[in-house]
Each structure stands twice: as C-alpha cells, then as structure tokens.
Amino acid sequence: MQTPEDISADFPEWPDWWCGVKEDIRYGQGLIDAMRPFVVHLMSRGLKEKTIRNHMDNLWLLGGEIIRSVSTFDEYGIPPEENLRRSVDEEGGPYCRHLHSEAHQTSYDATCRKLHKFLKATRQPSGAFFDDLIEEEI
C-alpha cells in the first residue's frame, strides 16, 4: 500500500460520483486533494487495509454530504479544504443521510474526529501539538 488508490482504485473518481451539477466536479477534486494527505497518513501508521478502507468509505460519505451542501447553498466560494475543516470537529462530522445504524454513525464520526485532529495538527506549522500527534495514532 503506497497510495490511496491502492486501497480504493476509484478514489480519483469520487468527484464524478458526488456530482449533481458541473461545478461539483472541480469542487470535489479539491476535497480529494484535501483528503489525500489524511489517507496517506493513515497508511503510514501501518493500519490494516480493512481499517483504512473503512475510513475511506466514511470519507466518501463525508465528501458527498459536503458537495450536497455546497451545491444546495451555492457555497462554491468556500475553498474545499476550508469547507472540509469546517465540516468536522471533536464530536464528528455533519449529518449524513446515508447512515442507517448506530454502528455506522459511530464509525463515520470516528473517522471525522480523526480527520479533524489531523487537519488541526497540519494547520499548525510546527510545535508540540504536531510532535504529539506523530507519537500517537490518530
């Protein structure tokens, strides 16, 4: 495993799947670009392929919800990475209409919390928080 495509060959195609209108494809590509470092980080932690695939499935859901919101509210002016950062926090992610069980919701929110922690750490140029992040598994 060296790239996200090694886990999910269709990773680069996600924006096409999320697309409701033409503008969504470019925006979705920005989301993929913002998600890629997180997936690479997960891979570098030596996690099992099944675990990484589960996180990627949750990222797919998250991206779809972000695109739906951007398209619905015409928020294309918000940079994709910033929108991704705004969408996740210490409690999890935004509402996902495709989750139908508590177990799936728990998994989705766990991925969103990990992503939030990763994005928060990578926003800071350097420092103790990032050093601590490297020491523990996100």
Would you kindly provide a brief summary of this structure?
With 138 residues, the chain is mainly α. Helix content is 69%, strand content 0%.
Detailed description of the structure:
With 138 residues, this protein is mostly helical. It has one domain. The chain has seven helices and no strands. Helix 3 runs antiparallel to helix 4 and helix 4 (49-73) crosses helix 6. It starts with a helix and ends with a helix. The relative contact order is 0.14. Mean pLDDT is 91; it is low at 125-138.
Features:
single chain, 138 residues, mainly alpha, 69% helix, globular, disordered C terminus
Number of domains: 1
Query: Segments where pLDDT lies below 50 for 5+ residues?
Result: 125-138
What percentage of residues falls in helices of 4 or more residues? Answer: 55-70%
Report the structural category: mainly alpha
Q: What is the element string, with H for helices and E for strands?
A: HHHHHHH
Helix tally equals 7
**Portion in strands:** under 5%
Rounded mean pLDDT score: 91
Report the major sheet.
Answer: none
Distance between the termini: 18 Å
Number of strands: 0
Q: What overall geometry do the principal axes of the alpha carbons give?
A: globular
The radius of gyration over CA amounts to: 15 Å
